[in-house]
């Protein structure tokens, strides 16, 4: 819809559209008394900076700061130039001929000015909605390194990337997603490093989204990732600007969503979920050891309960005789099979995990520790579960906390029940069958065209160079090539 040159028609449209919106601030005022001409200013209280509107716009308009020898607004089709000549102190202003875009700007916190005879409105950037600035990350915590997190304000988040990558090739394309929410999103990439086919695929998937609203990065992730029926994440969510900046330099694409303090990094491989920002802030020796421990912890988090059930129920002869006798003696008074014991304790542990997340932070950590001790001790004392089961479930939980990505932990939480079920039914045969099923599933996944198991599978595509940053991390001087994500023409990252 085009903006009408008749001011009263524009006023009626705006006031009908925002009927019963008491936070809308609007005013019609004269700008050329001799010719009986008026202007109309409108913005949303709380979304726009009132001081900026009053000082930079209204005071100048009402004081006649824009008057020329030919009269005020005598050139309605050059309203933007007239405002500039009048000394507007705001740099970010533009003409807007489309009414729907003008309305969107109002909803985003900008101020719109309509004038008699003008077929365009002037949009003045006055966004100043409440925010909490640049917070600290509370999920991807590191001992050494930056603690800054992305902000819920999109422009703050893009600035955090610009601060780390002062490169002319950093591109930030902004668009709108959501029919009702009209959420601003930004696609960030290094133009010379990104693979053109991956960038085109990202933009195509975003363009095909048709949904009422996007309120968080997680909601957008579900709409763009491959194979939504798989519990394993194909997009990497991060709170950390330094991690996103590192991903951009590797050729990945970062998607920022307004109102969400996280970024979506694509493509993502299974190996990328085991990498933490801290890995590159400390010595390669200790971080290689830490990386190996994470993979071992991932195996325990996924397979330990099922392995316990398979051995103790079907193959106790595999255990040392003394250990086997101790486990049998501890289970003599237990009224349930071992698999029921595991399920009881897993259910209790999941409840404690959820309770710790939902409660206030100072209380949540205490509930997790004290609750686990009390529940475990009470269950053993009551003869409901054996001490060995409590140990197995506790080790499984601790191992899951060693994995640096929460989305991958959630996938392992689901997959371990598949292993548990097959191990309880078929023993070690079922245990290995479940692991094979999971690995076949992982090998079948792709993330924006890249194999999910890369470089453990298809590593030859990149000359096996990506193995330098997998189970271990070699010194930076040996990692001269960018990972598989990067454009082959820009694969060198150091001489």
Notes on the structure:
This protein is an alpha+beta fold. The chain has helices at residues 7-17, 50-62, 79-85, 99-108, 154-164, 196-207, 217-224, 241-249, 284-314, 321-331, 338-358, 361-381, 387-401, 406-426, 428-444; strands at 24-32, 37-44, 93-96, 111-115, 121-124, 170-177, 183-190, 236-238, 253-257, 263-266, 446-447, 450-451. Helix content is 44%, strand content 13%. Strand 11 (446-447) and strand 12 form a beta hairpin. Helix 9 (284-314) packs across helix 15, helix 11 (338-358) packs antiparallel against helix 12 and helix 11 (338-358) packs across helix 13. The longest helix is centred in the middle third of the chain and has 31 residues, at 284-314. The chain is elongated. It starts with 6 loop residues before the first helix and ends in a 44-residue tail after the last strand.
């Amino acid at each position: 819809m085009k903006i009408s040159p008749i001011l009263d028609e524009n006023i009626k449209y705006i006031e009908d559209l925002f009927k019963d919106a008491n936070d809308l601030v609007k005013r019609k005022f004269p700008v050329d008394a001799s010719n009986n001409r008026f202007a109309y200013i409108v913005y949303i209280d709380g979304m726009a900076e009132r001081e900026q509107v009053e000082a930079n716009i209204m005071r100048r308009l009402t004081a006649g700061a824009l008057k020329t020898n030919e009269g005020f607004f005598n050139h309605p089709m050059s309203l933007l130039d007239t405002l500039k000549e009048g000394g507007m102190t705001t740099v970010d202003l533009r003409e807007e001929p489309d009414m729907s875009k003008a309305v969107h700007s109002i909803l985003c916190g900008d101020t719109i000015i309509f004038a008699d005879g003008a077929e365009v409105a002037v949009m003045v950037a006055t966004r100043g909605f409440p925010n909490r600035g640049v917070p600290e990350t509370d999920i991807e915590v590191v001992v050494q390194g930056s603690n800054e997190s992305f902000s819920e304000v999109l422009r703050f988040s893009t600035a955090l990337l610009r601060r780390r990558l002062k490169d002319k090739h950093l591109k930030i394309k902004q668009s709108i997603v959501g029919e009702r929410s009209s959420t601003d999103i930004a696609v960030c990439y290094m133009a010379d490093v990104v693979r053109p086919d991956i960038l085109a695929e990202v933009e195509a998937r975003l363009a095909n989204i048709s949904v009422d609203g996007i309120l968080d990065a997680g909601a957008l992730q579900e709409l763009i990732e491959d194979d939504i029926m798989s519990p394993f994440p194909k997009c990497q969510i991060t709170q950390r600007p330094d991690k996103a900046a590192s991903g951009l330099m590797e050729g990945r694409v970062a998607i920022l969503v307004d109102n969400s303090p996280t970024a979506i990094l694509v493509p993502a491989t299974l190996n990328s979920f085991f990498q933490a920002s801290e890995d590159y802030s400390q010595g390669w020796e200790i971080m290689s050891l830490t990386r190996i421990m994470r993979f071992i912890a991932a195996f325990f988090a996924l397979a330990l309960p099922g392995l316990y059930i398979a051995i103790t129920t079907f193959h106790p002869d595999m255990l040392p005789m003394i250990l086997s006798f101790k486990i049998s003696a501890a289970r003599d008074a237990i009224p349930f099979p071992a698999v029921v014991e595991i399920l009881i304790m897993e259910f209790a542990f999941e409840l404690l995990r959820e309770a710790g997340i939902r409660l206030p932070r100072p209380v949540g950590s205490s509930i997790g520790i004290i609750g686990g001790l009390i529940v475990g001790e009470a269950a053993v004392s009551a003869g409901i579960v054996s001490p060995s089961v409590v140990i197995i479930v506790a080790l499984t939980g601790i191992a899951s906390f060693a994995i640096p990505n929460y989305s991958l932990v959630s996938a392992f939480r689901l997959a371990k029940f598949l292993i548990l079920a097959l191990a309880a039914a078929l023993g070690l045969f079922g245990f290995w069958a479940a692991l094979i099923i999971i690995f076949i599933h992982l090998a079948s996944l792709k993330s924006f065209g890249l194999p999910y198991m890369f470089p453990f599978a298809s590593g030859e595509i990149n000359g096996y160079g990506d193995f330098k940053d997998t189970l271990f991390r070699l010194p930076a001087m040996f990692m001269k090539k960018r990972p598989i994500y990067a454009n082959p023409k820009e694969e060198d990252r150091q001489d």
